[in-house]
Each structure stands twice: as C-alpha cells, then as structure tokens.
Amino acid sequence: MADPQHVDTAFVEQTSEEPRMPGHESALDRKPQWQPRYPGSGRLTGKVAIVTGGDSGIGRATAVLFAREGAKVAIAYLEEHDDARITRDACEAEGAEVLLSAGDLGDPDHCRGLVDAVIEKWGRLDVLVNNAGEQHPDEDVTEITAEQLQRTFQTNIFSMFYLAQAARPHLQSGAAIVNCTSVTMYKGAPILLDYSATKGAITAFTRSLSENLVADGIRVNAVAPGPIWTPLNPCGGQPPENMDDFGEDTPMGRPGEPNEVAPAFLFLACDDSSYMSGQVLHPNGGIVVNG
C-alpha cells in the first residue's frame, strides 16, 4: 500500500497536464457542506468500505456518513494530505476505524495495494465506492491532448476496473459497489467532452457489472450528481468565468452540497436498496433525465 505521505509522482506527471487536480478543499473560501445531516442508525455496522476520492467533496461526505452508520472506512485519495486528515479525523470522531491511502488510482498496482491493505487490516471488504474523478474543460475537441485524454480515462473509468478486479475475490454475497457517474452522461457538456465520455462509460460499466455479479448476490449501482460544490470545479474543472453562477441553471437554482449527495451512496451501499442493482440515482437539483 502507498504510504499516506507518498504519491507516485512519476506516474502522475507522465500522464497528466494538471497533476495537482482536483484541488484542496481547505483552500476554498466557500466551504462545501459535508457534515452528515441526521443521526446514524447502524445501517453499515460491521461493514468495511473503500471510498475513493475520500479526502474532500462528495467522497468526504460519503466517508463520514458511512462512519456515522458504523462502517470501517478506507479513504483513498491522490495527494491532498491536509484534506485527507480532516476526513480521517471526522470519521474517527464518529467512532470509526480509518485507513488512509494516498496514490494514483490510475495505476493498477496501487489499486491492488489498496485492497490488500484493507484485507490485511480488517479481513474483509463489503462496500466499494468508486468516486474519484477529474475533469479538464476545453472549448474545442481539438484542444484535448492525448495525455489529457489518457489521464481522464485512467482516473475516471480505468480505476474502477482496476479496483473492481482487485476487490472481486473478497466480495461476498451482500456486498455492494457504488460508482459515481454524472448528469453530464445524460445531457452532455460541451466543454467537458472527455469527462462526459468517461461518465457514459461508467454508467455502461455499472449496468454490465451488475449483470455480471448479481447472481452472486453482489449489487452494483451508481449515483449521477448534478453540479455539486466541491473542489473539482473551482480548482480548475470549470473556467473561472463559469463559477459565479455555477449551478444556477438547475431547476432548484443552486449547486448541491456534498451532504445532499452522500445519502444516495449510503442508500445504495446498505440493505435499504437490497432489491436494486444496475440502477442510477440522480441528486441533480431537479434536472429531468432519461435513465
């Protein structure tokens, strides 16, 4: 497993134009709301979960909510150690055991190391939340470099394959995989061509993996957030001029908060959704989509 203070920078720099993305939540003037909004009810008691991109944003909100519901939580992130420590402390304040793992999930060796560390520490894996992602805005398809295209697909969809492959031998009947897709998969995004393409791949992967695993009692679902206030967009995922009115084009007229999305991940991770697989939930501010 990667040391929480170590990142395979050679791998990152080889494939990324902007290796510092998705950015630090601690640097934002307006802080996202990630704190759980209701008392826990033990819905994940005794469970072990991996949450990728768990240092900030939706990942942090999900990790802390899982902790409140009784899970032991492994928090996977790239290199934002300050944010990760805040998430760890918040999970531990809920009484949870926590494992931090820093490194690049686009590297299959790192993914295997992460799962191995979880099994070594806790002896089981019940929930895999594939939430980590990155996006790079471009006005024209010709502006997307081969390096950026590779980097976006490695982080957003290849990592899900790598983690599912590493986790599969340890997932028993009753386990759940929850992937993060996006509203952009359904309605498109003219300046997020490569990002939106990965989200379409994630939805197809979710439905296909569900069919592949459902007979073994393993459920696979996804969440497709709309515009959510996380570091992803203000730290380079959107042009700066788009941030003043970010999310105001939704029917609700505002961006969502991470703690408005995390309950969808909890629902799909626990037995409340025991008759659901291959499905997508849409916390998106009222945008009507097909699927």
UniProtKB/TrEMBL annotation:
Pfam families: adh_short_C2. Coiled coil: none annotated. The keyword DNA damage does not apply. GO terms for molecular function: oxidoreductase activity, acting on CH-OH group of donors. Residues 17-32 have a biased composition (Basic and acidic residues). Keywords: Oxidoreductase. Residues 1-41 are annotated as: Disordered. PANTHER family: NADPH-DEPENDENT ALDEHYDE REDUCTASE 1, CHLOROPLASTIC, NADPH-DEPENDENT ALDEHYDE REDUCTASE-LIKE PROTEIN, CHLOROPLASTIC-RELATED. Belongs to the short-chain dehydrogenases/reductases (SDR) family. This is NAD(P)-dependent oxidoreductase. It comes from Qipengyuania flava.
